[in-house]
Predict the structure.
Amino acid sequence: MKKINTCNDNIFALSTPVGGAIAVIRASGSGVLPVLREIFSGRIEHRQLNYGKITDRIEPDGGQGEERKENDTGALAVLDEAMAVYFRAPHSYTGEDMFELNLHGSYSVVSAVSRALTRRGMRLAEAGEFTKRAFLNGKMDLVQADAVMDLINAETRRGASAALEQLEGGLSMRIGAIEEKLLDFASELAAAMDYPEEMEDEVLSATPEVLNSAISRIRDLIDNGNCNKIIREGAKLAILGRPNVGKSSLLNALMNAERAIVTNIAGTTRDVLEEKIDLLGLPVRIADTAGIHETGDAVEKIGIERALHEAASAECVLLLFDGSAGITQEDERLVQKVFGMNCRNIIFVINKCDLPDCGTAAEKLKNIAPENGGSISRISCRTGFGLEELKHRIAEAVGLSEGRAIVTNERHIECLSAACAELCEAAELFSKGGNAAEMLLPQTELVAESVGNALHCLGEISGREVSEELLDRIFERFCVGK
């Protein structure tokens, strides 16, 4: 494993967008306190936000020199009135001495203060360097470092909640428990191989239980991660139905905005219109599609083909019907077509339930739907009736209505899958030995090697085993200042 270089120099970066009311510059390193004392006139106390002025020496010619001399007689200029807070190591985000400056958000102020810090030997931080230092200084493990970026990129409440769960150590504890069991087992195998004549049967006889338990726990985490892929990428939802049943109205109602054009003219929607919304804290991509019906219009045919394609690739399909018109023969053909395509998670949605004559539609749908067909929701896009219930059914259909998202990071899923494959290989190798008494030393060595490989994969999640290249790959995703 390549040695990881640690840095002892002083870094700073802007942690907020330029142009806002307030700009926050944060700094970290063993020498930041003298710099803060030099440029900040206010009181400096651990974890206390104090008011003061940011000052710097200005050369007689009016410019700020690149180097300061001991006999510098330049005038002391006020760059800004600001608030500053100092964090004493190790009680800071990075584990080093840190300070944060709350400045007025203009570009000129930020630039002037940045120049003042640079002149005092500080350098601009690289992307993710603050969090990287926090990891290297033991303030967080690699799972929590990954969670910082996931929290920054979270677009919905569920995404943010999942990242916070990991930031608080939820996944770390589960990975750590698996690692601990495997490390104990690996050490026992090593001892058995060192003294093969004294190889204890109880060590080898425990092998199936240890391996199968670890495999089961890792698979549970992988299944959780695959399910929660929706939190990262968003669930795809396709609205299907014949013309004028209210597909565009449903899109607008779910978005709470007039995004799609709604008219009484059949064929208004001729192409797929996709929008992204936050549905009960879940990112959902809704596709409003062309009405499915028999037509000789070449453009409409293309739209219908695209609509069916969207349905085939969606995590959930809303089959929409006009309850006031009843279930027509065209509706029945559409039901058979969609079920024939093996679409996932079909929900029958009866619209216009604020109008008379909607009661028979649900009964007829039950009769024409294949066995174990979709659930039925009754709504009114005009009044909003049933929309909240429909949202919950959609969340349930894509598998995220209950439970907590433990694994949401794609890198973690890859490492877990690799670890599981290694442990399955170890279990297969052991099974070829017949039983513990017949286990040969070469087989024991191969089992130990696979267990070691699995531990390496898990270590790349927790940070127990990590290379500089892996760290660079992780932290290059971060923004500067985090």
